[in-house]
Amino acid sequence: MSIKSEDLAARAAKVRLFIFDVDGVLTDGSLTYGADGETVKTFNVHDGLGIKLLQEAGIKTAIISARRTPIVLARAKDLGIEYVHQGGHDKLTPFKALLNELGLGEEQVAFIGDDVVDLPLLRRVGFAVSVPNGRKEAQQHAHYITEAAGGRGAVREACEFVLHATGNYERVMAQFLV
Ligand SMILES: [Mg+2]
C-alpha cells in the first residue's frame, strides 16, 4: 500500500456520515424532460445496495442536491436515506446544519460530488470523492476519484472504500456468504 493510499484509508476510517450529490453522481447527469417537466432519473442498483450496506455499518447517509424534484425523495425513501436537502446552489448551509444536528465534525464526513457547486463541501470534508465524469474542478479538490462513473457504480465503489477503511466490510458481507 502506498503512502497516498494509507492516507486515504486513514481519512475514510473516520467517516460517520456519507453525503451524496445526485446529478452526475447517483445518476449519469442526464436530465430527462417531457412536456410536463422532468420525468425521469436513472439510478444504479449497485449504488443503492452500497448505501444500504453503509447504513447497516452504522454510517449515516444524506443527500444534498442543488435541484429539487420528487424523484429524489422517492429514491431516498427507497434507500432509507434519512437526511435529504434539495434546492439551491448553497450546499454549505444545509451541510453545516446537518453536522450541527448530528454532532459531527467535518473530518467525520465523506462527500461525493461532480461539479463546482460541490466545491465548498469537497474542500471541507475529511474524505472528498469525485467521479471520472465529473468536472475537473471537482476532481482537483477530491482525495479520491472513483474508477466507476457517476450513475454507473461510483457510489458503490466509494461506499465499499469506506466500509473497508472503517473495518465493516467483512461483517456486512458475511450475511451474503451463507
Ligand atoms: Mg452533481
Automatic annotation (TrEMBL):
Annotated EC: 3.1.3.45
Catalytic activity, reaction form: 3-deoxy-alpha-D-manno-2-octulosonate-8-phosphate + H2O = 3-deoxy-alpha-D-manno-oct-2-ulosonate + phosphate
Tagged with keyword Magnesium: yes
Any GO molecular function: 3-deoxy-manno-octulosonate-8-phosphatase activity
Positions contributing to substrate binding: 23
Similarity comment: Belongs to the KdsC family.
Name of the protein this chain belongs to: 3-deoxy-D-manno-octulosonate 8-phosphate phosphatase KdsC
Species: Massilia eburnea
